[in-house]
Amino acid sequence: MERYTVTRRAAVACAGLAATVTLAACGSHDSANGGMNHGNASSQPAASNSQPAATFNSADVMFAQMMIPHHQQAVEMADLAQTRAADPQVKTLAAQIKAAQAPEIATMTKWLTAWGQPTAAPSGHDMSGMNHGMPGMMSDADMAKLKAASGKDFDKQFLQMMIDHHKGAIEMARTEQTTGANPDAKALAGRIIQTQQAEIGTMQKILTQL
Question: Can you give the pLDDT at residue 124?
Answer without folding.
Answer: 53
